[in-house]
Amino acid sequence: MKVLVHIDEAEQWRDALAERLPEAEVITSAAPPEQRRQADYLAVWKPPEALLREPGALKGIVNLGAGVDALLNNPGLPEGVPIVKLRDAGMGELIGDYVRYGLLHFQRDFDRYRRQQHAGEWREHAVMDKADWPVGVLGLGAIGAKVAAMVADDGFPVHGWSRTPKALDGITCHHGDDGLEALLGRISTLVLLLPDTPATRHLIDARALSLLPEGASLINPGRGTLIDEAALLAALGPVDDAGSVGRLRGALLDAFPREPLPEASPLWRHPRVWITPHMAGPTPLGAALDQVAEALRAFEAGEVQDTVDPNAGY
Amino acid sequence: MKVLVHIDEAEQWRDALAERLPEAEVITSAAPPEQRRQADYLAVWKPPEALLREPGALKGIVNLGAGVDALLNNPGLPEGVPIVKLRDAGMGELIGDYVRYGLLHFQRDFDRYRRQQHAGEWREHAVMDKADWPVGVLGLGAIGAKVAAMVADDGFPVHGWSRTPKALDGITCHHGDDGLEALLGRISTLVLLLPDTPATRHLIDARALSLLPEGASLINPGRGTLIDEAALLAALGPVDDAGSVGRLRGALLDAFPREPLPEASPLWRHPRVWITPHMAGPTPLGAALDQVAEALRAFEAGEVQDTVDPNAGY
Questions:
Q1: Scanning every residue of chain A, which has its alpha carbon at the shortest distance from the alpha carbon of B266?
Q2: Does the active-site annotation cover B278?
Q3: What is the pLDDT of residue A263?
């Protein structure tokens, strides 16, 4: 089989994949066009449109990440070619640690203490017990479920939400529109781990934000399109450092509708917004490569499972 | 028995203690002097010198925290009166969460991303695996051991250090002067959980800091006197926000030799120093009260154990 790899640092992926799949010929998108056209499989992350149109007879595509929205929205995507995405490959724990940091940031008042330091102010805040700090996790796929379990293990009560009903040990599960309303009204911190689909776009709008308790906080290691940015800014209140706040106490954001986040975005300068450059869940290379090799062998053997449903969007 | 309580919000402690010990008469230091003089027991946190001298016949003192240095250094402390201190009472977990936050702060580059945000810079750093981020914990008492276990559970390799040899599951234990040198040379983040004693004062001096690998970080939820502040500032390098650094990448500090930290301290304004106002390990009231009641009953029954050794300092 002939596999074409397209991702940052593709040579590293190509060499490591060739080692795992001696039976395959692995090339990168830097190879000559006549070689690219003969690819049986693509292993790609956010490929250019032209690259998707080139191969004559594709047998399958491996998406080199858990989010498939960029691939599904690519007009060059050939119809009817099965797609497999990477499952949580250590990514769940990385994102879980990101969420842990964000939860402690708010629950233990590190956001306030950092502002106090800038003002030279020594003042202790009473600690709210973790047991009195319910956390809402929207999205209970492989990563959402892993993160919810980590947060629950740490001692926070966790409310999970998914489109369809789910049952997870130690998590209070909600679903559907009513479930979302019930969840939003009772949590201290909201964590977004939903895929980007037409149904989730701007799910966190002015109305959703208005349902959160006063002083709630937001962590988004998921997709930037989940949030209506104007509504978020309104809920945060004025851009001042004095601690006067809107309904929303603060936000830790890793994903944005346009990345890099445009220079003009007011989010950069809001003192209660903490911005990270889409670093919450990088795919650990070794675990990812094992999955890619496994998926390609399954394609060849005609045994591939869990392909992406383009209509559902994940 | 007559118990005198001295601590912030003493009325709350008095009422809750009276409930647990119906056989006792519980007063606060706001009671009239003639009542204070008749106290059999003191349950105190950082009492004034005069208060310690008042009672005619003290049978015991309960220190309302894990650190006894302030009490032992008080010139009013009567000789020969047995002292019991609070053990880790949920405090270990609170301090563990503080340390977790600090570890993720450095390991996941949140310190860098916060500086980048101020500069409007979108740039991702490669994640160093937790397995490649060894953590040193100095002090393996009840709290140090608990914190070391939490950090190890989270996936960091942990090196612990104590004056005398100890063995703890899942922790590489070192002891003595040689052990300290060996530990300092191999860790990415140093966590200080030692008591304040003559032997630990300025343990972290210029020489100790020079043994740390380039780019190491420091978390001090312990005692302020453990660190030579001038040496710390020298190791951090110049006060600029551009990311040019000395040997030490950054420090998260909760304890200082003088508290509140004096306004003039350069630590307030160093961009790679994060200051919190001694909030890492507040004693959760309920658990602490149970221990106080237990200690007072043990005193009365002549069965008190684990009293403080004033010569050792803990």
A1: A120
A2: yes
A3: 96
B244: confidence class by pLDDT, cuts 50, 70, 90 = low
| Among B residues 51-110, those touching chain A with beta carbons less than 8 Å apart | 93-94, 97-98, 100-101, 104-105, 108-110
The catalytically annotated residue of B6, B14, B223, B272 is B223
| Interface predicted TM-score (ipTM) of this complex, two decimals | 0.77
Among residues B100, B247, B278, B297, which one is catalytic? B278
pLDDT at B256: 97
What integer pLDDT is reported at residue A244 of this predicted model?
Answer: 56
Confirm or reject contact between B127 and chain A (CB < 8 A). Answer: yes
Nearest to A101 among B104, B275, B279 (CB): B104
Q: Does B170 touch chain A (CB under 8 A)?
A: no
Q: How confident is the model at residue B245 (pLDDT cuts 50, 70, 90)?
A: low
Q: Could you confirm whether B207 is annotated as catalytic?
A: no
A-B contacts at Cβ under 8 angstroms:
87
Same fold, B2-89+283-301 and B92-275: yes
pLDDT for residue A201: 96
Whether B88 has a pLDDT exceeding 90, the answer reads no
Domain ranges within chain A, ordered by starting residue:
2-89+283-301, 92-275
Residue B138's pLDDT band (boundaries 50, 70, 90)?
very high
Reported CATH class of domain B92-275: alpha beta
3-class secondary structure for chain B?
A: CEEEEECCCHHHHHHHHHHHCCCCEEEECCCCHHHHCCCCEEEECCCCHHHHHCCCCCCEEEECCCCCHHHHCCCCCCCCCCEEECCCCCHHHHHHHHHHHHHHHHHCCHHHHHHHHHCCCCCCCCCCCHHHCCEEEECCCHHHHHHHHHHHHCCCCEEEEECCCCCCCCCEEEEHHHHHHHHHCCCCEEEECCCCCCCCCCCECHHHHHHCCCCEEEEECCCHHHECHHHHHHHHCCCCCCCCCCCEEEEEECCCCCCCCCCCCHHHHCCCEEECCCCCCCCCHHHHHHHHHHHHHHHHCCCCCCCCCCCCCC
| Pick from A94-98, A258-262, B7-11: least confident | B7-11
Nearest-Cα distance to chain B for A101, in Å, is 6
CB contact under 8 A, B100 and A104: yes
B188: confidence class by pLDDT, cuts 50, 70, 90: very high
Of A113, A122, A126, the CB nearest to B260: A122
CATH of B2-89+283-301, one of 3.40.50.1110, 3.30.1050.10, 1.10.10.10, 3.40.50.720: 3.40.50.720
